[in-house]
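Sample intake sheet
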Amino acid sequence: MIKNYIKAARLRTLPLSVSGIIVGACLGLNDYLKSPNVFAGCFGEPTVLNSDIFWLAILTTIGFQVLSNFANDYGDGVKGTDDNREGEARMVSSGAITPKQMKIAMIITGAITLVIALLLIYVAFGKDNFLYSVIFFGLGIASIIAAIKYTVGKSAYGYSGFGDVFVFVFFGLLAVVGTYFLYTKELNLTIFLPAITIGLLSTAVLNLNNMRDRVNDAKSGKNTLVVKMGAKAAKNYHYLLIGVSFLCALSYVFLKYESPYQFLFIIAYIPILKHIVFVSKNKEEALLDGELKKVALSTFLFSILFGLGQVL
């Protein structure tokens, strides 16, 4: 039974989910070291890997991602969307996990994640920044609701083409900008450039997933953005997401240039370029399944290289 929940958690999605945290943490720490601002929650020397804020943020994000995956499995399963889907089998639609069991798993995962998020908020802000704590608690609740409502319920926004907005906001803007703020307690406009990059690359993964499932989604009444715009426009949209993501990352480096190491992130775009070529030639959407891991892991690689480029 446990292995079925592990399958439902879709571990291959986790590297993508933490990419924004890595970028936000590296940029936040880097800017902290250049200012006299208070740095909360750090064991020993201030580095990303020994920061309790970083690891609590990672655990919180993983919790939200697993909750989202459970909810997606449940929502698509009870609606019948996964009955004829391509790619790996889903647990509720296959009968490996009952809808009731998945609901319980969602409740437990949501509760544990909320506790970790509260600990993160306390470590980052303590008792002296009550307003910040309230705001981030609200964001945590919003994340839980958004994760569940993606495919669950009659008004599931994933079924009306708004999934791209959810991914862009929560995987990109909130993950990067939010983590950055946990470290610095301040914002600047330039931080939104790498946040947009992560958001667009994450959205590209979702778009690729929806391109693969386009025919089945259309039959099931799941009106994703891909279903609405059609196969050809979806490809052009895919190229746009990736192209603009690169321009935003490059713009940040030019605006904050200090070292050639900052251009390390370009390496991550080499497999992405190969991916674009594959997509442009692809005529059988089921074959796009193998590309999901390529883009997700390239985004994860980008976050590591981009972060290293800022702190080296």
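Comment: The chain has a mean pLDDT of 89. Residues 2-311 form a domain with the Farnesyl Diphosphate Synthase fold (CATH 1.10.600).
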